[in-house]
Amino acid sequence: MHDSRTNPAFLRGMTQSRSVTRRDAFRMAGLSAAGLALAACGVQGKKVAAPQKDAVAEYWAAQKKNGTLRFANWPLYIDKDGKKYPSLDLFTKDTGIQVDYQEAIQDNSTFFGKVQPLLAANNDIGYDLMVLTNGLQLSKAIELGYLVPLDHSKLPNFAANAAPKVKNPTWDPNNTHTIPWTVGLTGIAYNPKYVDEVTSMEDLWNPKYKGKVGMMLDTQEVANFGMFALGIDPDTSGEADWRKAGEKLKQQRDAGLVRKYYENDYVDALARGDVWITMAWSGDIFQQVAEGKDLKFVVPQEGGTIWTDNMCIPKTAQNPVDALTLMDYVYQPKIATMLVEYINYITPVPATKDLVLADAEKATGDDKASLEQIANSPLIYPSEADQAKLRSYKALTSAEEKIFESIFQPVTQG
Amino acid sequence: MTSTSETGAVGTVPPPRASGTTSGARSGPPVTRKRSGRFGDGLLKGYVWLILAWLFLPIVVMIVFGFNDTQSKSNVTWQGFTLKWWGRLGDYPDLTVAVFNSLKIAVISVVITTVIGTFMGLALGRYRFRGQGATNLVLFAAIASPELVMGASLLSLFVSSGVQTGFVTVIIAHVLFSLSFVAITVRARVVGLDPSIEEAARDLGASTWVTFWRVTFPMILPGVVSGALLAFALSIDDFVITQFTSGSVQTFPLWIWGATRIGVPPQVNIIGTLIFAVGVVIAVVNTVTSRRRT
Amino acid sequence: MKRFAPYLLILPGGLWLVIFLVVPMVFMASVSTQEGDVVNGFVQTFNFSVYGDALVQYQTQFLRSAGYGLVATVISIAMAYPVAYWIAFKGGARKSTYLLLVLLPFFVSFVLRTVSWKFLLADDGILLSPMKSMGLVPDDFHVLQTTTAVIGGLVYNYLPFMILPIYVALERVDPRVVEAAQDLYAAKRSAFTKVVLPLSLPGVFAGVLMTFVPMTADYVNAGILGGPQNTMIGNIIQTKYLVNNDYPTAAALSFTLMAVMLIGIFAYAKALGTENVLEAAAR
CATH assignment of C52-282? Predict the structure, then answer.
């Protein structure tokens, strides 16, 4: 509709002659110069000191339950039935808290880019609870004091039911600010109709799939794969390794192999046939296969990435108590089971495996098969051997981050 | 508001004597009578229809896939006809919120734009005053500058002055980019008015106020209405400037942009179809009534 | 009272335009020479080197955008002219119906139209899939994420801006003049090139102005239909502003873009032999 500026009435107006002298133009320039003096002052920024221990108790003491919660999450990341979210409905029934659930996060950097100016200015971001992946943005949020330190005395289910592995992560010691929503793997997904069996990272560089390879836009994701392909362990990597990985990725792009650097939309591209082989997140492919698509997911022999999506409360949250209540609520095995049966990523609550199997006992036909598949899938309940191949994103200091970004951003933003 | 080159510029409003030839009177027999003419005409006609088909192709696809019985989360291959999505329009609560936001923003910004834009159009079309040229220059700049630059500069202003982007800043932006369109449309109408009618009203003893409301306003009303419709259309569809100024407020176009990353659900096709249908009805009514007027 | 009437009428709108159009441009210029980041704030240091750095780093995208804009404009003229010509001279009584037909597709949201193309052009989509199964094109043939797709999208989305001004110009050409020309010149072709074409040129010029500028600054088409080799300057500015919060670089890039466009418009007006920019735009 935008283009109704071609409306005849308007065009008639536009095409009327009018006279503007050059003097008028100069006058405008003069006015602008006056404004320049006004605009010379800088943009205000605020750096926040790290929270003190007693400040945490003080913060929570001053908060109370409001009965509403604004929850920002990723798309297709919660159980859904029509327009209902069964687990959230149960939550509302049990706690009386209404949830305004929004699929507002498409990728970490875009979302963080949107909320960071608000948080820096101490303004409400419109959400009380959000889910961020461990990585540059989450580390930055913690470092800048954008996240409310959690009151662990209100998180008994987390203490009782969370897998030991997800507790006390390197990016957030003692789970001070975050607890996991789900854990996932980045590996390679492919369409067996066009692609022979994939075992190695090198297949993403195979000229046979020119223009049919999908890579990810996220610099940390793509950097890890560049390093895996060269046999570099991201954990111990340094600047020289990153440069090599950057070159490797550039070479892949310039050879015309890469169709696009995708965000969440790689799934759609794979389903539509735009790419045949792509970097992929385990749960997405599991969901596609469950829907009947013929797709395969592998963790290549060189390695894969393991990441954690974390629930956290922004410092300007209006309903932090309600947010904390939900964070603990989803750690009940019953609720975690509802979530994993739909989301198909790795759940932080290991007790769910038996509950999924119990559900499978009760179910029949297709449902039974798919539930059994979930309980027995190495992608959802990975084995120790698999986990040995997996690496996290490289933890970066802010000085390192600058170098890292300057190497990998030009790769994805050609 | 007269210009030396008025008669020379092709784009100018034709002088009154020519107005008789602008529409109906010209549709006589075709001007060419050459032998090759008929074949050439046929070829040209085919070409025009080909372009029209190309223009309509994505629209048809959009409408049709609102009826697709798709099973998966993204709507890509045809899987049979269904009406079920019409009953499940509200499946995405945030999509519903986004659509209503778009409507709210459009209505509020149109009201503001129409009022102050009409004032500007009146001033520019009726009076000669100092600064008129500069006003025209700014109006032109508002239309000519790319949306991206307009959005970027507004964001620079808001960031520099610590204003939080959101509902209000979107409305400010929408008024800004539609203001020129309303002002220029109204001005065209005002310039075309016959001053003797108003003079006659005043001669008959009507006050300035009464003259305006009883005589002038009804005459410029068509210009105001078409300006307002234009502003509404511009607002409800705007993506670029809105993206820069919206903060965390979602509108329909922004929601679609986000959804392209996960696959656009059929509900979007249906809402798109509904907006399209409303636009078509308004356009058809507008065309029919304006034809009747001439 | 009468003397002040125009000023009172112009005041609200005028203020709006000054505060939210003119002043922001100034702020943008100011932000571009500041240094800092979102966390620590930005301080005005009159750091003009950002312009040099940004231009060196993103010259490819600048040139690419200009190239895409240029090619898309030329294609638009080629596509729009015959349509405008046919409607103006052969449309008869149904002229306004044809015009309406040209405009109708644009009642669908801009983003949605582009998304619809993405969907139509998918590798296994409704256009390419039959061609592939018939063996007309190889299995790995694709249109999405190519230059063709981006330029095609630009042309599609801005075509009416070209058709309408050309139509308006042609519509003003008196058929009797054309007839006289045809009597004067034996060939139909010379009647066209010597009479109709020159009379319609102002419409073409207006169309160029109304399409080239927004096409060059567009980022939606490259974002939805383009691939890693199709990034336009608009995509960079959008990312710098909204994702990286790197305001100085983003402001420097958009200020440069605006300045280049303004100079372009002035030069274009000059080339048309008029000193008055507005006049040129209005034609």
Answer: 1.10.3720.10
Delimit the domains of chain B by residue range. 28-67, 93-293
* Residue A13 pLDDT > 60: no
Please tell me which of the candidates C99, C124, C231 has its beta carbon nearest to residue A272: C124
ipTM of this predicted complex? 0.90
Show me where the domains of chain A are located: 4-40, 53-184+308-349, 185-306+388-412
pTM for the model stands at 0.88
Domain A53-184+308-349 has CATH 3.40.190.10: yes
Per-residue pLDDT tens for A208-267? Answer: 999 999 999 999 999 999 999 999 999 899 999 999 999 999 999 999 999 999 988 898
40-69 of B, contacting C, C-beta below 8 A: 41, 44-45, 47-48, 51-52, 54-59, 61-62, 65
Residue A72 three-state SS: strand
Q: Thinking of the domain B93-293, which architecture would CATH place it in?
A: Orthogonal Bundle (1.10)
Q: Mutating which of B74, B251, B261 best tests the A interface, going by the most A Cβ atoms within 10 A?
A: B261
Q: Are A53-184+308-349 and A185-306+388-412 the same fold in CATH?
A: yes
Cβ <8 Å between C9 and B159: no
Inter-chain touch A20–B136, beta carbons under 8 Å: yes
Residue from B62, B185, B256, B274 whose CB has the most chain A CBs within 10 Å, to mutate: B185
Distance from CA of C177 to the nearest CA of A (A): 22
